[in-house]
Specification:
Layout lengths: L1 H16 L8 E3 L16 H14 L8 E3 L4 E2 L2
Parallel strand pairs: 1-2
Antiparallel strand pairs: 2-3
C-alpha cells in the first residue's frame, strides 16, 4: 500500500506543480549495501548515489511524474 501511495503522490505533485515549472520524478535507489540493505545489497552507497545523480541530469520535461530506476531505466507503476 505504501508504494502505491508514493506513486500516486508523485503523479499528483507532478500535475499540480507543472504550471510552476517544477518537475517531480521518483527514483528507485536500488538495493544498497547499508545497515538496512545489509551486505547482501547489490550496490555500494557510492554506486547508487552516482547513478542517481547521472539519472537526474538526464531527466527532462517528458520525465515529469514518472518513476525511474537508479540506472535511468523507466519503471512501471
Amino acid at each position: 500500500m505504501f508504494q502505491a501511495g508514493l506513486n500516486m503522490y508523485t503523479k499528483t505533485l507532478a500535475m499540480d506543480w507543472k504550471a510552476d515549472g517544477i518537475r517531480v520524478t521518483a527514483i528507485n535507489p536500488g538495493w544498497v549495501k547499508t545497515d538496512m540493505g545489509t551486505e547482501a545489497g547489490e550496490l555500494t552507497v557510492e554506486e547508487s548515489t552516482s547513478n542517481i545523480a547521472r539519472t537526474i541530469f538526464k531527466l527532462g520535461e517528458q520525465s515529469n511524474g514518472l518513476f525511474y530506476n537508479y540506472d535511468f531505466q523507466p519503471l512501471t507503476w
